[in-house]
Amino acid sequence: MEMFLGDGWEVQPAGGATGEAYVARHGDQQVFLKRNSSPFLAVLSAEGIVPKLLWTKRLENGDVITAQRWVKGQELKAHQMKDSQVASLLSTIHGSSELLDMFKRIGNEPLIPEVMLENLHIQTELAGLTTKIIKAGMEFLGQEIHKVKDFPSVVCHCDINHNNWIIDDATDNLYLIDWDGAMVADPALDIGLLLYSYIAEQDWAEWLDHYGITLDRSLRDRMHWYVVAQTITLITWHYERGQPEEAAKFQDYLITLL
Q1: Most CB contacts within 10 A, which of 148, 186, 187, 227?
Q2: Which ranges of the chain have pLDDT less than 50?
């Protein structure tokens, strides 16, 4: 990587699950590098959703390296997820026609509930998860699936953990990073995960007002369906990786949801 950048650059891993992110430094200059990042990074940058894209270059082996402006900032704390700035940025993302068009152009089909449920059946069966609570959760998803059908799709981030929200110390701009798992889906998927994880239920209506929609019965049902589905996904994920304690925590949470 240093050879690619030129003399004087020092490159270090930036952490993260993929191991494809780096910080490059040259004197006072500092940039964030990523190998084979999201193909719609340019659109995310243009709309101010992620730090500014500086350049993109393709290596001889076919890998694509992107460089973004380094942001000196802080990850949001869990309690900051209730801020109106978070709601406004998520609304901007979900409302971006340019982002949706780009995502569809690269061949991403909307994630429909029927496919999501079918995939969950396969995942739980392969993992051998046959507990009563898993069965109850799967039955709930099957019985309630009619409530989440045929809603408009948007680009969803799908990992709205507070660690992925960065606020720039210099400008107070808020960014949502790590777009590797994004997909086209019902916006209730993102909204539900965020509200259930971070916002007290009595404050949902106010938060959604900043987002720009009204909390009604339909939205409640859709959010709940996607949170149940995501919880079963997380139980399976931890179980398959030999993390029974984490899986048990999410099973207890699934009990409260049902």
Answers
A1: 186
A2: 2
